[in-house]
């Protein structure tokens, strides 16, 4: 990641230290575009409606990105270049509003589903004596 930071210069900031999840989400919320290797950090970006470019090192990364309609916004850690990452970040910046709207829709649907699941669990627990 230090090599990526050097290649991107002032165009990006790599957070190499550990941050509490609440602080990570707050920092990510302030980003125009987020790029990350850790799937949970990428998910934080998705939950903050922040466009994300994922650096895939596990198959799950690609799956989550594709499920969210962001299949064009990841690079494979095994063979990406800083130039490729930079290009995808620029594309995400240019499509920032559309991506943010897509993520807002996904997050609204997730919250509806989460609420329904909680209600189902409460109903099931209410039948247990």
Structure description:
This protein has about 130 residues and is mostly helical. The protein has one domain: Glycogen Phosphorylase B (Rossmann fold). It is about 60% helix and about 10% strand. It has six helices and three strands; from the N terminus they run ααβαβαβαα. The protein has a three-stranded parallel sheet with strand order 1-2-3, with helices on both faces. Helix 4 links the parallel strand 2 and strand 3. The longest helix is centred in the last third of the chain and has 31 residues, at about 95-125. The mean pLDDT is about 90.
Describe the SSE topology.
Elements: H1 2-8, H2 21-29, E1 34-36, H3 39-47, E2 52-56, H4 59-67, E3 74-76, H5 82-94, H6 96-126
Parallel strand pairs: 1-2, 2-3
Give me a quick take on this structure:
It is built from six helices and three strands; from the N terminus they run ααβαβαβαα. It is mainly α and 129 residues long.
Q: What's the overall average pLDDT, rounded? A: 88
CATH homologous superfamily caption: Glycogen Phosphorylase B
Secondary structure class reads mainly alpha
Give the count of helical stretches. Answer: 6
SS strand fraction: 5-15%
Question: Which short descriptors sum up this protein?
Answer:
129 residues, mainly alpha, Rossmann fold, 60% helix
């Amino acid at each position: 990641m230090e090599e990526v930071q050097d290649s991107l210069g002032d165009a990006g900031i790599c957070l190499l230290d550990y941050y509490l999840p609440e602080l990570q989400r707050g920092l990510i919320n302030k980003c125009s575009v987020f790029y990350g290797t850790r799937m949970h950090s990428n998910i934080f970006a998705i939950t903050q409606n922040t466009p994300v470019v994922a650096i895939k090192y596990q198959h799950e990364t690609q799956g989550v990105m594709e499920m969210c309609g962001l299949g064009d916004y990841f690079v494979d850690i095994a063979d990406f270049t800083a130039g490729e990452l930079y290009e995808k970040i620029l594309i995400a910046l240019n499509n920032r509003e559309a991506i943010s709207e897509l993520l807002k829709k996904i997050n609204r649907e997730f919250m509806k589903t989460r609420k329904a699941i909680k209600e189902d669990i409460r109903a099931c627990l209410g039948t247990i004596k």
